[in-house]
Structures are given as C-alpha cells and as structure tokens.
Amino acid sequence: MRNLIYLTDLSAPALEPYVKMGEGQLVHAFHDRPGLFIAESPKVIERALRAGYQPASFLVEEKALERDLSALDDEMATNNKRRWEQTPVYVVRSELIRQLAGYNLLKGVLAVMYRVQRPGLADFLAALSGDHPRIAVLESVVNPANVGAIFRSAAALGINGVIVTSDSADPLYRRSSRVSMGTVFQVPWTYLDAHQWQDEGIHLLHRFGYQTAAMALRHNTIAIDDPRLDKVGKLAIILGAEGPGLRETTIDQSDFTIKIPMADGVDSLNVAAASALAFWELGPRQQK
User: What is the pLDDT of residues 138-167, one digit of tens each?
Assistant: First the structure.
C-alpha cells in the first residue's frame, strides 16, 4: 500500500529537498552519517532500490501517478514492503511540479534517497570479483554528464569497479545518475580523497597489485590494443578531466601511457567516448 500525501503548495517543508536544497546541501544533510541524493525517473530509482538504497520520500505528478509508480511497486513490495507503506509519496498537480527546474525535460517521478557509506580503498579492491580485474580511476572528472556516461560504459563493458577522486563530480548527482541510466548503482565504486590520490594514488594501486595505464598523449604512449596490456593481471585505467587531462605526476608514475589512435587532424575524443573504447579493448577477458 502506498503512503500517498497530496500537496497543493511547493513551499511545503516536506518538499525542501526537491525545491530548495542544492547538491552540496543534500550531500551534507546530516552531520553524523552520509547525506541524501535525488534520483530521477522510474528506471534510475528502480536500480537504486535494487542496489539497496533506501528512499526518504517520493515526489510524483498527479496525472502520472500510476504510470510512474507502477514500475516501482514490484521492487518496493519485494524488498521494502514496510517502507513502501511508511515512505511518503508526495503527489502534486501538473502545474505545480512543472515549476521545478528541469522537470519539463525529465517528466518523471523523483525520489530523495539516503546515501550509504562508501568503503575504504583496501576493502573496495578486496571485494572486487574476477581473476583479471579491470578498474577505472576518474581523476578530477568534473562534468557530471561525463561521469554518468563513463559509468554507463563501465557497466556495459564489464569493468569491475570505479574509483572516483573527491574533486570529481559526484556519481550520485542528479545529472550523473540520470545520464548513467542508473548504472551508478550497479557498478561497484568508491571515493578516494583527491589529496591522497595526488600524494600516493599510484603507489596505493601498486600496493594492491594493480598496474596503471594513464590515458594521455606522450612520447612513450602506446596504443590501447598493444599486446603488452593483455598480459597485465590487474589493470587500472586512469581517465582525466576534459581539457586539461591527467596531471603530469599521474602520467609519470603510471606503468603505461595509452592512447586511442586517431585520424589525421584530430588529437582526442571526449573523455566519455574515450572511456567506452578503452573499456571495450581493455575490459575483462571474459567479455571478449
């Protein structure tokens, strides 16, 4: 049974996370535990629920009530029956919800959900499955759309996990999770403090048995289909920000510097597109 609550005013205090709180405020909503995030659309919310994330509330357009919530009924009934009965589902008229920034583009149910504590690097790497693991490291990738697209490619092409430096866009930002089509809830991932990454990131990965491949253009760059890469047992593929790319220290300390061969007159791809090609070529052996 759904806990439907009909509201006639967007200024209702219960709607503050949807109306007034920015991404940063949601992240720091609590002092003593991980904060909140907003998931958009039935598909994204369904994948979040399936991954074990718990909803604080839902917000849905009245005329789309059945369309949007029917997709979530089975998931909530299977794993969260009691919570489905207790979690508020705020229902508002079309003319109200369409005042929310971005809703006219999305036109789907929203959910405020609780974040979970991300594992430390050692626990994260120890938990990864597979005999030939391939992980991605996102260094200062600040565009949420790129982060979401990278996760979508990682999920599709069998990458075992993703490490996100803390100065990158948050994978749980609304745009990140939306662009990823909810795959941010499928691919194992964790944060690594940006300063720690700069100071000892490559050394940490080496300590856990990973060799590193920095995507960059240097005099010693090799192609992503170089046979030497096939022989690496554990490989971390490092991707940098659009424009500036990876830090020189990251490249210098990496075991390989890799590139995607380009046609004359073009020197690079968007980082999201480059990640898809790299994951296809360098992904787990069983995916080939």
Answer: 999 999 999 999 999 999 999 999 999 999
| Three state DSSP letters for the chain | CCEEEECCCCCCHHHHHHHCCCHHHHHCCCCCCCCEEEEECHHHHHHHHHCCCCEEEEEEEHHHHHHHHHHHHHHHHHHCHHHHHHCEEEEECHHHHCCCCCHHHHCCCEEEEECCCCCCHHHHHHHCCCCCCEEEEEECCCCHHHHHHHHHHHHHCCCCEEEEECCCCCCCCHHHHHHCCCHHHCCCEEEECHHHHHHHHHHHHHHCCCEEEEECCCCCCEECCCHHHHCCCCEEEEEEECCCECCHHHHHHCCEEEECCCCCCCCCCCHHHHHHHHHHHHCCHHHC
98 pLDDT above the threshold of 90: no
Question: pTM for the complete prediction?
Answer: 0.91
The domains found in the chain, sorted by start residue, are 3-114 (3.30.1330.30), 121-287 (3.40.1280.10)
